[in-house]
């Protein structure tokens, strides 16, 4: 069992799931999703389980994201064969259903976000009631750099952050540490990594709320507050072109670096992500995930995801050639196609 991709256990009143792919930074596979979902249903119904802990093996990462390399290989093989990939449908179908399951889970979930937490790892942790950051936590939603968009419920939780922070994080892929996560509410508590074992031991026989309050510590000063006014100004425009113009006009080194970063990202990803985040403001978690599933299936059928993965993870030249290559070539009709309903029977559905 120690070789399993995800491990399950219990300690007193607390059930636990441990992501167990430390060499792969605990990247989330379809098998891990398919193992965790029924366990969550079992724990939800079990009177003996008061709360659930989600954690990960190793010291480097909670979960660096979904296993996009597997989706890349399966989708590329299917495109070359002129057919649709089963994995690129099933992986996202089951992942988004798991995100909703976590968001609607009837008992407290405590995610120990010790290390890298990006993309799919954010989807595992952010929807639960408690998110514990440590000094090793590194958070990001970097999807626009690989031809995707901030998914796993990003349409729901990002627009609900104050001060245009959702747009800022979702479009730029900015990396945050613990103090800023606590400041934004993306983390609910800060606990030094050396105290996590004691925290878990305390959770065995007491309620998460009391235990976390007792272990909560000061993460130190956040960096974002000093930049919030500029972020609001720069990310208020209703177009990517407007956001870039505002960043250019701000005249600061860090805004110039953000503008340079955005100009290297997929133009299509930036435009569909901005629309996604705006639409998600008024959506339930279910509607947000349904929208994202439509979007991701269109991304799997297009070119930029495969080019992004090639440039970042395969050839590692970090020189993607996007299609189309410029923002002005991505018109409103092109964006709208990513949000159109799927064929009958292909839409995302949920298990109640």
Explained architecture:
The strands form 2 sheets. This protein has a 6-stranded mixed sheet with strand order 1-2-3-5-7-9, with helices on both faces. Strands 4-6-8 form a 3-stranded parallel sheet. Helix content is 47%, strand content 11%. A hairpin with a 2-residue loop joins strand 1 (6-11) and strand 2. The protein contains 16 helices and 9 strands. The chain is globular and about 60 Å long. With 352 residues, it is of the alpha/beta class. The mean pLDDT is 96.
Brief summary of the model shown:
By secondary structure, the protein is an alpha/beta fold.
Mean pLDDT: 96
Strand-residue fraction? 5-15%
- Number of beta-strand segments: 9
- Taken from the alpha-carbon principal axes, the silhouette is globular
Task: Tell me the number of helical segments per DSSP (H or I, 4 or more residues long).
Answer: 16
| Helix content class | 40-55%
Determine the structural class based on helices, strands and strand pairing. Answer: alpha/beta
Low-confidence regions = none
| Amino- and carboxy-terminal Cα gap | 30 Å
Spatial ordering of strands, largest sheet: 1-2-3-5-7-9
Largest sheet, described in full? 6 strands, mixed
Give the radius of gyration. Answer: 20 Å
The SSE order reads EEHEEHHEEHEEHHHEHHHHHHHHH
């Amino acid at each position: 069992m120690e070789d399993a991709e995800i491990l399950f256990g219990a300690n007193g009143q607390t059930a636990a799931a441990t992501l167990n792919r430390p060499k792969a930074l605990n990247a989330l596979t379809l098998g891990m999703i398919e193992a965790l979902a029924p366990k969550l249903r079992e724990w939800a119904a079990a009177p003996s389980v008061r709360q659930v802990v989600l954690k990960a093996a190793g010291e480097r990462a909670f979960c660096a994201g979904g296993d996009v390399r597997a989706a890349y290989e399966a989708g590329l093989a299917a495109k070359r064969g002129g057919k649709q990939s089963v994995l690129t449908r099933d992986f996202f179908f089951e992942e988004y259903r798991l995100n909703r399951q976590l968001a609607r889970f009837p008992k407290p979930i405590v995610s120990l976000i010790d290390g890298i937490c990006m993309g799919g790892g954010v989807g595992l942790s952010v929807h639960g009631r408690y998110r514990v950051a440590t000094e090793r936590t590194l958070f990001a939603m970097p999807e626009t750099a690989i031809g995707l968009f901030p998914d796993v419920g990003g349409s729901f939780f990002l627009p609900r952050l104050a001060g245009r922070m959702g747009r800022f994080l979702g479009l730029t892929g900015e990396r945050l540490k613990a103090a800023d996560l606590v400041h934004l509410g993306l983390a609910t508590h800060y606990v030094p990594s050396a105290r996590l074992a004691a925290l878990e031991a305390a959770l065995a026989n007491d309620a998460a709320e009391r235990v976390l309050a007792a272990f909560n510590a000061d993460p130190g000063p956040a960096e974002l507050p000093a930049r919030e006014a500029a972020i609001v100004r720069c990310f208020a425009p209703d177009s990517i072109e407007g956001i870039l113009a505002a960043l250019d006009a701000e005249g600061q080194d860090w805004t110039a670096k953000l503008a340079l970063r955005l100009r290297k990202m997929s133009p299509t990803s930036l435009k569909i992500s901005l629309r996604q985040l705006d639409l998600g403001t008024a959506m339930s978690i279910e509607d947000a995930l349904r929208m994202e599933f439509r979007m991701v299936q269109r991304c799997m059928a297009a070119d930029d995801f495969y080019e992004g993965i090639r440039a970042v993870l395969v050839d590692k030249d970090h020189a993607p050639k996007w299609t189309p290559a410029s923002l002005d070539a991505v018109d409103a009709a092109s964006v709208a196609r990513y949000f159109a309903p799927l064929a009958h029977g292909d839409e995302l559905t949920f298990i109640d």
